[in-house]
Specification:
By secondary structure, this protein is of the alpha+beta class. A seven-stranded mixed β-sheet has the order 3-7-1-14-11-12-13. A five-stranded mixed β-sheet has the order 9-17-16-15-10, sandwiched between helices. Strands 20-30-31-34 form a four-stranded mixed β-sheet, sandwiched between helices. Helix 14 packs parallel to helix 15 and helix 17 crosses helix 18. The longest helix has 27 residues. The radius of gyration is 28 Å and the shape is globular. It starts with 19 loop residues before the first helix and ends with a helix. Cytidine-5'-diphosphate binds next to helix 14, helix 15 and helix 17.
Length: about 775
Amino acid sequence: MATEATEIRGPGHRVKRVEDDRFIRGKGNYVDDIKLPEMLHMAILRSPLAHAKINSIDTSKAAAVPGVVAVVTGDLMAQHNLAWMPTLSYDTQAVLATDKVRFQGQEVAAVIAEDPYVAKDALELIEVDYEPLEAIVTPQRALEPDAPVIRDDKEGQAGNAIYHWEAGDKEATDKAFGEADVVVSIDTFYPRCHPAPLETCGCVADINPATGQATIYMTSQAPHVIRTVFALVTGLPEEKIRIVSPDLGGGFGNKVPVYPGYVVATAASLLLGRPVKWIEDRSENLISTGFARDYHMHGELALKKDGTMLGLRTSLLSDNGAFYADAQPTKFKAGLFHIVTGSYDFKAAHVVADGAYTNKAPGGVAYRCSFRVTEASYLIERLVQNAAYELAMDPAQLRLKNFIRADQFPYASATGFVYDSGDYHGAMNLALEKIGYDELLKEQKEARAQGKLYGIGMASFTEVVGAGPHKDYDILGLKMNDGAELRIHPTGKAILKISCQTQGQGHETTFAQIVAGELGIQPEDIKVMHGDTDNTPYGLGTYASRSTPTSGAATAMVARKIRDKARKIAAHLLEVSEEDLEFQGDRFFVKGAPDRAKTIQDVAFAAYTNFPDGMEPGLEGVSYYDPPNLTFPFGTYVVAVEVDPDTGQWEVRRMVAVDDCGVRINPMIVEGQIHGGLTEGYGIAAMQLITFDDGGNCVGSNFMDYLLPTSWETPKFETFATVTPSPHHPIGAKGVGESATVGSPAAYVNAVIDALQHLGIRNIDMPVTSSKVWDAVQAARAGETG
Ligand code: CDP
């Protein structure tokens, strides 16, 4: 007999993360924790040069070292047709170099040994005769007619251009510019940075010579796709390949691509008949794995004198490194950069994007952003800020005047998106209220009167996440849909298997909350499984804030499917018709007679013990979700900074963030995601830079040179929410994982520029270091006096 309904901790509850129990006790299970009997260890020899012909490779001394089992070169891989592999962007990438090396850190050979230290030491005995070639370190140089062709391995590749891509309407945009009173333009560079997850990449490949079963434990954000790619590359039958991604120590886009190390370790295990482990060290991760950004951008904004925005033009040049391996959706060569119109009501816009090969590691991954969206958000928000100076308007007023209004949704953007919902005025007004904008302007005036460099910056952003609808979204032809499988046990506890892959985002908690909200089973009674291709439904993986919009939606759908069957069983138990039942919290009850009820636990037991005649027993199901549209989270960030004129150092005084990701499943986890994103945005604005010298040597191969913000530098954040549900998502949620990294860099930089704008300074490329600020101030003052 059912008792009083209990409160179910579904969406909206700040449920503590179930996964933290094992993480804070040091009981996580990462790839490097996996130790198998007879396991061998692999280390990779990497190129010291950015561009060089390989004349010969002599492995004999390394092979003779006691404990070394094999030395693998590209020629050996070629004998098995594995010297090259496809990338996720329809390019090819060398697994181990045979003809040339094309970036510093490229994989040249591998040593397999009984001991990881022996493997590493033996690398030094491999002799490679390199013939250096000109290193190309900028995409501008790459596209010059006399530049050497980096990808001379590709038939028909005449130069270094990879793609040319356009979006929007050129003619309509030209017309809009013809009607403008003012055109504001900016040239800016979003520099190369690295996601630098705490756990580097690696794998343990275990191929059983007797059965042919390949089990590969791997640091992958997209295990199902990797399984399919492995089947295609190695020719192993797909059912014999099991990819297991255990706990991941962060990914941030860096663990999406297929890396040569995975392929070599797998081939070695196949040939040697023993498990092979390969784990990168920090420098290997920083110099050779998926970078982000490296985008040269030009933007022009056409406005009326009164501040009405008319049109937007952008042209981009992307540095993709030596192999095009970013994993953008196939149709969109420059990712979803065409969201560059942002939160504004533009009648016309035009985007032109070109990509080029250079002698750098492959890059352009979605580092805590949907594909290239952070670059787009940065460009439009820097332009809008400069337009406010040009028109002598308040930057907040200029934005509020041009925002898409709440009553315009669904809104068709000039570049082809249909924004699902939004309330941009609401988010900005809340941010202005929370920071006390009027008061802050007064403070700024007073500070400036005392000669202080005090800036207020803001950025409003529209993200585009949840790729995506099958019509437009695929990677390597695989449609970007995701699944969820749910089984309710007889005692009313459940196991949920999801296609996406958590890397610290808290899926084991939030996805259980989605089921809790639909079925009334408490989240702690639902085990969430992921990351094992044999035991979870197919899906394209976790990146670009797509888990909640896709696999989260599939989770709600499968729970609803099960609820429909549960209703039939409850009707049978209560001897009423289904139509007479209502579901609330954790139970079905007879309309008008709430004490005549059956809980989900009663129903689950009956599904295996007392179900209606003719019904299939059990209570389980699987759903796949093909979203009808993307989701469009948004927000406004306002930052106040003070710049020290004597050192160029800048310090954040206030940072207010208002985010809207629709219905928040777990507000505490969302806040954590936003704190992480605001910190990463700050790191990129202030310090994170991977750069190269003229010879193509990577400057930033360790954490002494590649700076990440610590708790010492990170500003204090004040976070707030508005809630505008996504109309098409089953529970009204939009993704949030990456929003703050997308939106905040422009806010920080706009604040610094605002502090300096009276000196005529309109741009400093990120990272905005104290030395760059100091130089800009000196140059401006010299100009004033000179
Ligand atoms: O794909 P990824 O998990 O990185 O991004 P996401 O789908 O935006 O989710 C990040 C985390 O925030 C997950 O644990 C989500 O379930 C949670 N989330 C939430 O609680 N409410 C939302 N409206 C969106 C995300």
